[in-house]
Amino acid sequence: MTRERSGRNEFGQELRRLREQAGLTQIQLAAHLDYHHTYVSKIESGARLPRIAFAAKADDLLAAGGALFAVATKIRSRLCSGPSTGESLIPLPRAPRGVEQSRLSLTRYVRLPAFGVTCPAHGIDGCEALVPGRLAEVPGVDGLTVGSETLHGFAALLTTYVDADVSEVAGDLAVPVERALHTLMPLVPMARGVQADGLLQLAARYADLAGWLRVKRGQHGIAMSWLHRSVEWALASGGAGTACEALSSMGVLAMIEGDAATALDHSVAAAAVDPNRQWTGVHAQLNQARAHAMLGDHREFARLSRAAQRAADRFDDRDRTEAPWLTGAAGVTYIASHLAGGLRDLAEVTGRSVIADRAVTYAETSLANVPARMHGSRLMLTLRLADSQACRGDLDAAVELARPVIAAAASAPATPIRHELSRLRSRLGSRFAELIDIV
Predict the structure, then answer these.
(1) How far apart are CA 435 and CA 417, in angstroms?
(2) Which residues are within 8 A (CB) of 88 and not within 5 positions of it... i.e. 6 or more apart?
(3) Are 293 and 347 in contact, with CB atoms under 8 Å apart?
(4) Which residue among 51, 121, 201, 433 is least crowded, i.e. fewest CB within 10 A of its CB?
(5) How many angstroms from the chain centroid is the CA of residue 252?
(6) Mind spelling out the 3-state secondary structure of 353-367?
(7) CB–CB of 119/113 below 8 Å?
């Protein structure tokens, strides 16, 4: 029996059990769900793959507590590229405690796509959406009329969170992002057709951001739970780009924990999600290169780095729309920072100072091009440059570079910054004491 057929049977058997338990015939169930009874028959026999919208509505009608919806998303994600994402019945992580964000802005509109967020209903063709001032103002969150405006509201709200993350605004962004997720998911069973898939695509984007925010908090276990959900929901609803981002975030987390082999596995999986998108390939190749550098494989690092740079030069409009962080000054910073980190790791493993010299060059390039509003990235890249200088043996330059930012770095909550600071501290050894009085 094929994996697809087995998955269909798994869903069909559970649907039949719950339907009979509720005392409904196939015709009655179909009528309640606004589907033809032959569709229900084919689902139960395993002849058809359940749609997300059907699974969500059936789950709600039969009071399955999320079981049918979980099986459907698991089946669809299994049929796509990527690693096993584990059991879907694991509860969603609870939103962290915190104060609800103040009103984001006065009423305004945003032209989607924006900040890499695309409206599931309109794609890269774009649309104009009202930015809600609060989560409660997203159309449809009352459960009365869940439709296209609900998609627009959650997409527009997500752009504000992505922008806030990049700019590192004050406050704990994980609180509103995860509250939005917990508000969004119960609406999926209330949506119809493509709108249910669209809401699930947005849920995958929110889960990816929630996972990254938890990484920055140092809460790696909860981060992985969100990222696994993001991959599963993205693959189940056709959000290949989001699946690639989430898998890449898993790889970055593995690198932070020093597990290069796992980082490589996640990065290879990310590359396989959608070979037709150039930006996902670049994203995955850069992370693969970093993982090979940690393993001391200079040849693979060089090959993948060159491939990523060549592919980035061939970006089309869709690539630039879906992955703005890989284009323009932000793209130069992103690629150069990955190359700097990889070369620094290679120099550490091989002991070759000429490689450390190249790491310094790329670190200087990334720092020179980082947008001014990306304060956290500027801080992290300054530490990476200082560490690269220390790696090639120039401890004086490393100390002078770190001196102006050491106080901010020591108080920064973000894990990537603390990780770079820890590496610099180890590399400087006794020379780090020269910076202690500043902290």
Answers:
(1) 16
(2) 70, 71, 73, 74, 232
(3) no
(4) 433
(5) 11
(6) HHHHHHHHHHHHHHH
(7) yes
End-to-end C-alpha distance for the chain, whole angstroms: 63
Q: Alpha-carbon distance 247 to 244, whole Å?
A: 5
pLDDT given at position 103:
46
> CB count, 10 Å around CB of 396?
11
- Using DSSP bridges, classify how beta strands 108-112 and 127-131 pair: parallel, antiparallel or unpaired: antiparallel
413 CB-contact burial (10 Å; exposed 0-12 / middle 13-18 / buried 19+)? exposed
Tokens 């049918």 belong to: 68
Exposed e or buried b for every residue in 232-261, given b needs 16+ CB within 10 A?
bbbbbbbbbbbbbbbbbbbbbbbbbeebbe
Q: Return averaged pLDDT per consecutive 10 residues of the chain, 439 residues in all.
A: 59 91 92 88 86 83 84 71 41 67 60 92 90 90 89 95 80 88 88 86 96 92 93 89 94 93 93 91 96 95 96 93 91 95 95 94 95 87 96 96 93 90 94 77
pLDDT for residue 191: 82
pTM: 0.84
The predicted structure's pLDDT at residue 7 = 53
Cβ atoms of residues 185 and 221 within 8 Å: no
Torsion of CA 220, 224, 225, 228, to 10 degrees: 170
The burial of 3, by beta-carbon neighbours within 10 Å (0-12 exposed, 13-18 middle, 19 or more buried), is given as exposed
Kind plus residue range of the DSSP H or E element containing 127: strand 127-131
- 150: buried, middle or exposed (CB in 10 Å: 19+, 13-18, 0-12)? buried
| pLDDT for the residue numbered 5 | 53
